[in-house]
Each structure stands twice: as C-alpha cells, then as structure tokens.
Protein 1
Amino acid sequence: MSDPTPVIDDLREESEELDALVARLSPEEWRLATPAPRWTIAHQIAHLTWTDRAALLAVTDEKGFAGLVEQALAAPDRYVDDGADEGARQPPDELLATWREGRAALGEALRDSAPGARFPWYGPPMAAASMATARLMETWAHGLDVADALGVTRPPTGRLRHIARIGVRARDFAHAAHGLTPPAEPFRVELTAPGGDLWTYGPEDARQRVTGPALDFCLLATQRAHRADLALRAEGPDADRWLDIAQAFAGPPGAGRPPRGAGR
C-alpha cells in the first residue's frame, strides 16, 4: 500500500512555490493573459481553487461530489471555464485566501484518510496518493502558465517524478480518450531527472521505448509544450503514436500548444 505522505508533502511545496509567485502581484498583474485562451493569472488560480474544492468534496463528502459531477455532465463544454470565470471575478486577496484555505483543508483530509480508501473522481476512483499526485500535476502545469505570463522561469525539481509516473501510467487512458485501442505490450520509458538520475518504467527489453528529459515528458503529458519542441525520442510505431496523444489528466483530450513559432 502506497504511503501518500511524500506526495502530499510535495504537493504542499509545489503550491507554496506558486503562491510565492502570485502573493505580491498587483491587481493589474492578476489580469495578465496566460497561454490558456481567455485565461488570466486570476483564472489559473481560480481553477486550482475550484479543483481543490472538488477534490476535498471527493475525499470528505461523496454525495456533494456527485452533485459536481452532475453539473459537469450538464455542461461538459463550459463547466471548467465557468468555474474559473466565477473565481477570477473575486478580488485577488480574497481569491488568494480562498485558495490557501482550500488547499490546506485538502492536504489535511488526505493525510487523515483511511489507509486503502479510494475516492470518486471525474475519471477512475483514486487513492489518497493518486489524488495528491493529480493535484500536484495540475498545480505544476497551471503554475507554468502563471510563470509564462510573468516572464519568469521555474526551475524543474524532483517533484516531477510524481507527474512523470502518472503520465506513464495514463498511457492506456490517453489511447482510450482518443478512441484508440491501447497497445497490448508494455513500453520502456527512461527519463533523465532534473538532478541527473534516470527514472525508468517498464521492462528493459521492451521493443517500444521512450527516452528523454523528465521535464520534457511532463510538459508533453500536461500539454504545456508541443512534441516538436521537446527532446523526446520514440523507438517503435506504438511509442511514436503515444507521444502524439499523451495526456496525464482526466477528461477529453485538449487542444495542446502549437509548436514554437507556429503562424509567424
């Protein structure tokens, strides 16, 4: 049974790092555009706030979470943007306080959850460690959007190992999300961590292989960069196709990011 404590701790650190980026922004800076169409920095933090609340309900109030699922099914094309729009209309200090309170409550709930418990989600049910990993992935990805809007670079950390792992494990889900049959054979994935270590997944003798920087794989799996701009290498046709459709998040495939310089 996986101990969720390390990833919950890393989720807290990831959130605090993003918090430090936005805590001193002026009201005008909160309205800066990010790479996500129509989303400002306020929308990015509002989305994290909304999703943390959904996760907290999933962990503590299954009936309440079911109500959120019904809302999502009633407006599948709008509910994410609607939630971000609503939160982004708050004054920045109120939005920041709400985000802080919600993520702290979620962290406590995950730490207090019963060993082996599984919680409902928009995809398959998740254990505490998986829920924390999903929240870390989103916090990191939306934090990149905030950093892009501010023109700053966030150095990659060892926390990427959680995102890389969920991206690898989501291989079959990514195929299903695109209406494709997942490959029957396992893949070998070898990723170079920010500190130089090698993170490996799958059998060493697998014919289908993906290699490259862990950062690049995480950017691909969260659709924060186009494959053409990343140093990822695929060996085998199935591995090559996977890199075109990889996603580590629940829900339908996103549009992704265009290659750098597209349309120029």
Note: Strands lie at 118-119, 126-127, 188-192, 198-201, 209-213, 233-235.
Protein 2
Amino acid sequence: MESIKDFFNSISYGQLFRIAILMLSGVLIIRTIRFFMDRTFFKKSNLQNKMLISKLVNYSGFLILFIIILSELGIKLSALLGAAGIIGIAVGVASQKSLGNIISGFFMVTEKSFEIGDVITVGDKTGTVYSVELLSIMLKTFDNLLIRIPNETLISTDVINITRFPIRRMDLYLRVAYDSDLSLVKEVLQTVAKCNVNCLDEPNPFILIKTFEESGIGIQYGIWFEKTNYVETRNTIVQDVLAGFKSAGIVIPYPHITVTNPLPVSEQESP
C-alpha cells in the first residue's frame, strides 16, 4: 500500500500535464485516422467492413496510447510483462476461443456472404444482421430479440442469406382434388400471378405438378417479387389463389374422418 502511495507521490505536475496532453492528442489522432479512413478507404465499402475495421483501429490505437502513458510514468513494460507472465499464460489459454472467433470474423468479412441489414438464417435462428463485432455478430429477430452468434459458429454452419438479391421467389405448396382440370388449375395460377401487383412479370411464375397425395394432387407454385414486399405479397397471393380457385370451381381437398357406428344403438346398451 505504501509503495503505491509513494509511486503516486513521485509523479510531478509536469508528468501529469504531459500525460493529459498525450491522452488528448492520442484520442484526436485515433479519431482523425478513423475520419480519414471513412472518407478514403471506406467511401465505397459496406457498413459491415466499416464497423469491424473501425473497432480494430480503436482497440489498437488505445492499446498503443496506454503503452505510451505507462512509459511516461516510468513503468518498464519488460518488468510488467515478466511479473504478469503466469497470468498471461492463463489468459492466453482462456482466450484461444476468442482468438479463433476474431480470425473467423476476418474470413467472414472477406467472403462477404452477408452485410448489416440482411436477413439471414443460421441453424434454427432467423433475423436481421444488427451489428458485426470482432468476436460475434448480433441478430435482431422479427419478435425484437437480440441473438449473439459467435463467428466460429458462422464459419462452421450453413448461413442462408434470404435478402441478398433484390428479388426472391415465394413458394406455395397447394393441393387440388383428383378430378380437377389441371390445365384450368395452371391457367388460374398464371392469371393470379399476372393480376397481383406485387408479382413480377419476369421471371415467369413457376408451376410444378409435383406429387400424388392421399387427398389430392400436390402442386408447387412459385411467384417472384421484390424482397421489400414480402408480407404484402404473402398475404395477397394466398387470398388471390383462394378466390381464383373458388371462382373456377377448383376444390382444395382436406382429409376427412368419418366415424361409423357398426352396431345398432340397442345392441350397444349394457343390460
């Protein structure tokens, strides 16, 4: 305790002034570097790269500033590192996972498989990429939850980017009765896609008569739309298909269960 007190008493006002100037100058230099990179290197870069490199510049800059301040205080880094050798080994072992996440993060950035604002699916989790950190990414789900996913998980797991391209295809799996006129079914589905304002004229709607099922014929119906109109397209296309089938007399079958009574009521009554 006395040694710590003596140490602070030994610091002169001149040292305190120089340390204050160093801290102020260091912060200004770090911010200037970030500003310069934003205006030059990152001018055409995406938000994900900007965020990741900006944090790397911050961490590196403040680490260098911390070392310079220690040197100004007369603390020898060699002695400090030697005294902290055992702790450093322990921290190094514990941080292997973190280092792996950082390296995975750089691989992920170079791949450019997604950006901030994209909707992705990782395993059973789907959400909007909210932020990209050195160790992980943050997903914001559609029910407003925040999920942290480590970078190593992203590298070793299939990642589906739902909104990477400006247009998407929405598939509906329909079922019609066996006595339906399949030519009429295809004609109705073509008309529905043509009349729905959210459906694109190109590419053409995808219609595949797919399977024979227990209660009807299975049909895969895919329409193309702009990714920003997902909810509106989903709601209107289902309504339009139902209305089109009803108008054309096309039946959408569903399983029926019929319960029969094999014995007369009188015979089932107990004596």
Note: The mean pLDDT is 80.
Protein 3
Amino acid sequence: MKKTVGYIGCVVVMAISLVCGDVVAADTKIGVIDMKQVLSSSTAGKRAQGIIEQKMKSLQASFKNDETALINMQKEMEKKGSAWSDSVKQEKAAEFQKKRRDLAVKQDEANQELKKLREQHVNPILKKLEEIVGKVADDGGYTVVLPRNVVLFSADSVDISADVVSELNKVMK
C-alpha cells in the first residue's frame, strides 16, 4: 500500500514539474554568441589583433638571431666536440646553457608583454561586449545568451553574433 501511494505521489510530482517546465520553457528564448567570431570580425577586435600580431612579429624577429646562434653553437659542439678537451667541452656546454636560459627568460618576458598588451587592448572590448550582448538580448527578447563553445547544437536562427558585431562596430568606432 505504501509503495503504491509513493508511486502515485512520484507520478503526480513529475506531471506537475512537466507542466510547469513547459510553461517556463515557452517563455524562455535562448541565444548563442560566437565570441571568437565577434572579436575577429569586429572593427575593434581586428584593430586589437593587428596591434598584438605586429608586436608578436617584432618580438619573434628579435629572437631569431639568438635562436640561430644557439643552433650554430649546438652544431659546432656536435662536430668539434670529440676533438676538444674536457675543459673546453665543459666551457662550451656552460656557455650554451647560459645562452639557452637567457633566451628562455627573454621569451617569458615577451609572453608577459604580449599578455599585458592583450589585456590592454582586448579587455576594454570584452567589457563593452558584455553591455552590448545585454542590449541585443533585451532587444531580441532573449532570456539567456550562451557562448557557442559550450553549446553542443544550436540552430543558426539563435546565433546573435552578427547583431553583436554590428552593434559593437557602432559603439567602438
């Protein structure tokens, strides 16, 4: 008897939650936004990406000489290493390790510089983007807007990326 009452109670609770769930779902409009697309296709995003790429190319060019010197030094050690005395080998190996550490430090500093540059140029866009997504969502009657990378499937009709890009271009000229 208790089991039957329990089953009936569960069925009633499930029926109520299904009915209520349908009512809530009917009022819910979900949008999807592709943040990468927005950043790469908006005017402000392209400008920020151009600045970052230019700095990255400049930094890579500055490392080219150091990398070439390390490669040449390694080749020299491989070719002539057997003819060198132990003290010369140790001296060359220490010099090689020092240059490699120096290059690693320079690369770490460059990565930090690029990170700061991204924060300086991309973060203001992201802050403005939050406002714009809210505005586009309100105008379109969306209850929820999710990033595309967390959605397994969505119809193209719920993608508001183009609207957000258009609005972002208007706001950040």
Note: Residues 2-7, 9-13 have pLDDT under 50 and may be disordered.
Protein 4
Amino acid sequence: MDFKKHFMTAWKSTLEFIVPLILMTLVMIVVSVVTIGILAPVTMAGYMQSILLMVRDRREPKIQDLFSEMRLFFPLLLFGIIACIITYIGFMLLFLPGLLVLIALAFCCLYMLPLMIDKRLGIIEAIKESYRMAVNGNIVEHIIVAVLFFGISAIGSSFLLGSLFTQPLATIFLLSVYDEKVRIGD
C-alpha cells in the first residue's frame, strides 16, 4: 500500500475543497452536539458518502449530504448502543480490557460505514466484510491506516477548531485507502 499516495490524495483534496469540507464538518459537529450524539453516526455516514463521491468523481461535498443516509439511523443507533455496552463492560473489568475492546472494535469496524454506504450492506455484513478487509493481506498496513486515521482525527480534536481541518483530511485518507481496496478487489 502506498501511504504517501493516499496521504497526498487526502492533502490535495482537502485543500481543493477546503471551504465545503470545513462547512460540512462544522455542521456535522453542531448536529452531533445538539442531538447529544444521537445523530452523530448517521451524519458521519452521510459525511463519508459525500467524501467518497468527492474522492471518486471529484464532486464538491454538500452540507445536505450529511442527511443522505438516514436509512441507517436505526442500525447505527443499535450498533452504537451495543458497542457502548460492550466497551463499558470491558472498562468495568479493568482499564486494559476496556481499552482492548475499544481498539478491537475500531479496527474491525474501520471500513464498516464506507461498506454500508457504498455497497449498501447491512450492519452485520458490513462488519464481517470490514473485518475481512482489515485482516486479509498485510494486516500491518491496516493497523497503520487505523492509527493514522484515528491519530489525525485526535490531533485535530486536541485544539479548538482543529477538527474542522483534520477530520476531513483523515476521512479522505481512509476513503482513499477503502476505494483502492474495493477497486482491486482486496
């Protein structure tokens, strides 16, 4: 996997579409905060759909795209509740088991949302396919993708308004990798 190519794609696309990406990210954050996180997963799905279209077709992202995947509201809400319960149980056992559960969930579900929006897979099928994509081939590459995606997102979240730039960058990077994996059939 050519990490430099994917990162350069993400960097150039972020700069090319900086204004719509910042506006879309801002609206997604505001909607997530106002709805106490209830709409966060479904707006993230719309966010990813819009960015995937940008990566593939050079289509400018639009704010209304955030709400384009409302069909996923209940599956993602149920998934979020189950993931929170499992993580909570892990943290009740001790810090390390909770952290391991969180890392395993994040890694196994790395491509879940792109698969649900792109391939129209159900949640169970998307989780299985995401896991398959992550562990088939060179697993170290997917660990690096996950670390870069979550790392870039975390760096931006660590300072005020940083997410407005780093969230699109990280998402474009992830979707560039996803798109390559889907095109070559890996």
Note: The two ends are 11 Å apart (CA to CA).
